[in-house]
Automatic annotation (TrEMBL):
GO terms for biological process: DNA integration. It comes from Tanacetum cinerariifolium. Residues 19-127 form the Integrase catalytic domain. InterPro entries: Integrase_cat-core (IPR001584), RNaseH-like_sf (IPR012337), RNaseH_sf (IPR036397). This is Reverse transcriptase domain-containing protein. It comes from the Eukaryota. SUPFAM superfamilies: Ribonuclease H-like (SSF53098).
Length: 127
């Protein structure tokens, strides 16, 4: 067997790549992800929450703790994104359990924001 064939047999099948819509206005379409497992800062932060406007590529970097509860992350989101830039039309994120939680989905549904999960095995759809 060739290396390529063996490698292909041991990988999960990937989904089709779906191109996100092109944003029409700044901060209407955002992406978000966490950079985790960082060395703890003097304040105990070990994670950076990265929120990117898909149109302008403006970015918010927010230090958090990996163990911060969703209600705290929701307050940070409302302060850093919604109060400064308005309510986004859509958010693209990976399949992190925090973004897939009922709490987060309910908050975004109440705000009228569409949640889109990036295509499995295609992180480039995160924007």
């Amino acid at each position: 067997m060739t290396c390529a064939k063996v490698k292909a047999e041991h990988q999960k099948p990937s989904g089709l790549l779906v191109q996100p819509e092109i944003p029409e206005w700044k901060w209407d379409n955002i992406t978000m992800d966490f950079v985790t497992k960082l060395p703890k800062s003097s304040q105990g932060y070990d994670t950076i929450w990265v929120i990117v406007d898909r149109l302008t590529k403006s970015t918010i970097f927010t230090p958090i703790r990996e163990t911060d509860p969703m209600d705290k992350l929701a307050r940070i989101y409302l302060k850093e994104v919604v109060t400064r830039h308005g309510i986004p039309v859509s958010i693209i994120s990976d399949r992190d359990p925090r973004f897939a939680s009922n709490f987060w989905r309910s908050l975004q549904n109440t705000l009228g924001t569409r949640l889109d999960m990036s295509t499995a095995y295609h992180p480039e759809t995160d924007g």
